[in-house]
């Protein structure tokens, strides 16, 4: 099956000489959830703006369902819903009319029942007759999501959708994303809450300074770059690691009471047992063993640091 979005050698240089994107290439598969991670100014929003047809590229090509986003703008834009970072709505219009109007802008016939269901999914139904200026910031964010879904898009972009919103909206947001995934909607999100990306994404892309560092299936990325750290707390402090343990690349804690061992995910079977047996044979007694696994955030910070 052909990818629903294909990005080839995409570049964007602004008039002031700033290069926001530098030869970015990757595909997005239909029905997946892709988390796009990167620091502020990395190029995430520029990339989304080009795919959504709001900014023209300086070079390269993007296709959506096989159509060029520049040459076939109307066809590609009809496929896409976008939840932007900024609140851009008519503050004096009602919630229902705002969402219905967005549907009409995409050439869709009126469908009050569908709009009502979207508002119910986002806990907005009780506010349907309220003017937007009467809503809280979190409720206005929900309206942006409703507008993006108004024309039943096959692709949904969420640009920092939970930034600065309450916990309840974040929970509702991810429940909605799960429901949309089940209907086949392709979802691309950017977020600073990396633990959210780790919990919901199928694949992860990391971008920094306009360059794509990687796009990889999340679990494969965790296996490849993830590590575990085991801390062994000794009952008595030691001055140095015994020579018998030299082959295990152990680190000694500052107080001499902890042995710290880093190992790759999946390599623990047998290896840990041998290490603990070797520690016992060296005459060391330990009272506690704890482990910590590398998170997606650890991997992200490492990748960005290497690219700096």
Automatic annotation (TrEMBL):
<dbReference type="InterPro" id="IPR017871">
    <property type="entry name" value="ABC_transporter-like_CS"/>
</dbReference>
<protein>
    <submittedName>
        <fullName>Multidrug ABC transporter</fullName>
    </submittedName>
</protein>
<dbReference type="Pfam" id="PF00005">
    <property type="entry name" value="ABC_tran"/>
</dbReference>
<comment type="similarity">
    <text>Belongs to the ABC transporter superfamily.</text>
</comment>
<dbReference type="InterPro" id="IPR003439">
    <property type="entry name" value="ABC_transporter-like_ATP-bd"/>
</dbReference>
<dbReference type="InterPro" id="IPR027417">
    <property type="entry name" value="P-loop_NTPase"/>
</dbReference>
<keyword id="KW-0067">ATP-binding</keyword>
<dbReference type="GO" id="GO:0005524">
    <property type="term" value="F:ATP binding"/>
</dbReference>
<keyword id="KW-0813">Transport</keyword>
<dbReference type="InterPro" id="IPR050763">
    <property type="entry name" value="ABC_transporter_ATP-binding"/>
</dbReference>
<dbReference type="GO" id="GO:0016887">
    <property type="term" value="F:ATP hydrolysis activity"/>
</dbReference>
<feature type="domain" description="ABC transporter">
    <location>
        <begin position="5"/>
        <end position="234"/>
    </location>
</feature>
<keyword id="KW-0547">Nucleotide-binding</keyword>
<dbReference type="InterPro" id="IPR003593">
    <property type="entry name" value="AAA+_ATPase"/>
</dbReference>
């Amino acid at each position: 099956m052909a990818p629903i979005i294909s990005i080839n050698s995409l570049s964007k240089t602004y008039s002031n000489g700033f290069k926001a994107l530098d030869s970015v290439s990757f595909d997005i598969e239909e029905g997946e959830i892709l988390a796009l991670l990167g620091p502020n100014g990395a190029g995430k929003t520029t990339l989304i703006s080009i795919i959504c047809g709001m900014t023209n590229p300086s070079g390269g090509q993007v296709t959506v369902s096989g159509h060029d986003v520049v040459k076939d703008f109307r066809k590609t834009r009809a496929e896409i819903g976008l939840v932007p970072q900024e609140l851009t709505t008519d503050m004096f219009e009602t919630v229902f009319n705002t969402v219905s109007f967005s549907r009409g802008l995409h050439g869709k016939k009126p469908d009050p029942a569908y709009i009502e269901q979207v508002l119910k999914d986002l806990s907005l139904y009780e506010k349907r007759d309220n003017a937007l200026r009467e809503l809280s910031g979190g409720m206005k964010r929900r309206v942006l999501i409703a507008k993006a879904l108004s024309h039943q898009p096959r692709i949904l972009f969420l640009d920092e959708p939970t930034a600065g919103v309450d916990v309840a909206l974040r929970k509702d947001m991810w429940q909605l994303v799960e429901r949309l995934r089940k209907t086949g909607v392709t979802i691309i999100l950017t977020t600073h809450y990396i633990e959210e990306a780790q919990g919901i994404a199928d694949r992860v892309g990391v971008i920094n300074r306009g360059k794509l560092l990687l796009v990889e299936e999340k679990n494969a990325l965790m296996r490849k770059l993830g590590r575990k750290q085991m801390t062994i707390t000794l009952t008595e402090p030691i001055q140095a690691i015994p020579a018998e343990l030299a082959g295990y690349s152990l680190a000694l804690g500052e107080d001499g009471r902890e042995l710290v061992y880093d190992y790759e995910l999946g390599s623990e079977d047998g290896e840990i047992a041998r290490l603990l047996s070797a520690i016992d044979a060296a005459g060391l007694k330990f009272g506690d063993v704890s482990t910590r696994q590398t998170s997606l955030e650890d991997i992200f910070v490492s990748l960005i640091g290497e690219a700096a």
